[in-house]
């Protein structure tokens, strides 16, 4: 790999602009023997297959809604593929069209954050990422945001630097500048003085079993809560409060303590290095939950975990597990 | 080996009247289980009678054996006129010791008998079952006597083991290494390792660490298996700890057997690549 990592945004108005940016990117990769992937919607896939002809067989197409299911998992998948390719002396080349419509504002924020962090996480792999953004479909704010998270913009055959590009960690910090809204009045809560988290899990499980949360998701939540609470008891400061409530389509679990985290912990936003066992606590917490928010400073640290609630309880997952 | 009427009981739950057996795969297992049986008896100032222990030290005895409490019946006293071990002679020697202990007023008498010798040679099984009948008559009606018979599995055929199992109402298990209301850790010997049940989190990482260190100390670098069938929760710290232990053992994996589906789902979400050195063993 002679050339370095790149992460470019391709804003496009119509099909011609899309193909003018995407086709050379994919063809170059096929010619260079890269591992070429395209995570797009079905319509774009058909367009690309048609235009690529025989070369389409050397592009792995994945559906965008599957690929972009969870920011941390997507980042981990992407990194695993990029490192695997790098290990074979190849390069990962990904055309990735993130899903923006039908996302709640909180989710949009997390996907934008993931775009920024990709610059840090993947830099060492030499991967090439091209992200098409449809100017017709997407709100202007999303496209403007993309210029802060992508170092370069593709315009025709050219890649030009984005003057508005922000350092990924600065961008990340800006994502968390807004204070969290307070928990709702009806939230269940308790002050945690006990050290044995067994009782805490029993309390969370009791609450969750009154919702539609499936058992496997509950198990993941319990692992995440245990980790956050262990951190709070080991590194935080009392008093520690646990709060639980439901929102439309989500169960929220908040752990608040009176400690300040020192900077540079990364908050588990990037996977720990894969060479050898590292402490992966908060990174794993992000994988286990749908959404994690962290605020720390001025004598308080809040970690808010969200897990998605299905509209109705699925009971099959109970019987699917042998005792 | 295990018949319908067999009860499994850890050493600490054995009680007078129990005629129990242990089929050990290694001296480590025998020392662990019989050692606990002997040690508990000595600490409670009960009479302990060891049969056929040979020249080796009696497991569970630290320092000079307390003579009034511990009696070792040497192999020579098990032999008949022809110089070969003989059930009648052996059981007569044992009965004499039991009677002597009763006369001394011991409220409980523990008999630890390695009977592997009885199975050797022609008519081994008949000889053994003759012993077992006599032991049964000694233990079962007694309000004082507990018997633990031991057999080296390597020296027994499957048929012999089945017959041995049929002759005992109780199968003795190791005592837990650790047990409270939340977590239980027990040694396993087939395969070597630990069985965990309950919930494991930071409150109990230390006890797991100690139990693992003990297994590794005797392991000569072989694989260690963790039977997780009874585990309902494991935290990330414990998984990290296991991965670190596996990494220190370079090349000798920690094998996770019978991991419940909901724990496996968590590990798959976190990603096995985060946990090098850990591998899934038998399922279900």
From TrEMBL, chain A:
Record SUPFAM superfamilies: ATPase domain of HSP90 chaperone/DNA topoisomerase II/histidine kinase
Superkingdom, natural source: Bacteria
InterPro entries: Anti-sigma-factor_SerPK, HATPase_C_sf, HATPase_dom, MEDS_domain, RsbA-like_anti_sig
Domain MEDS residue range list: 7-151
TM region(s), chain numbering: none
Limits of the Histidine kinase/HSP90-like ATPase domain: 198-306
GO molecular function: protein serine/threonine kinase activity
One Pfam family from the record: HATPase_c_2
Annotated keywords: Kinase, Serine/threonine-protein kinase, Transferase
Protein name according to UniProt: Sensor histidine kinase
Source species of the chain: Actinomadura macrotermitis
Automatic annotation (TrEMBL), chain B:
Gene source species: Actinomadura macrotermitis
Family annotation (SUPFAM superfamilies): SpoIIaa-like
Domain STAS positions: 194-271
Domain of life the protein comes from: Bacteria
Entries under CDD domains matching the protein: STAS_anti-anti-sigma_factors
UniProt name for this protein: STAS domain-containing protein
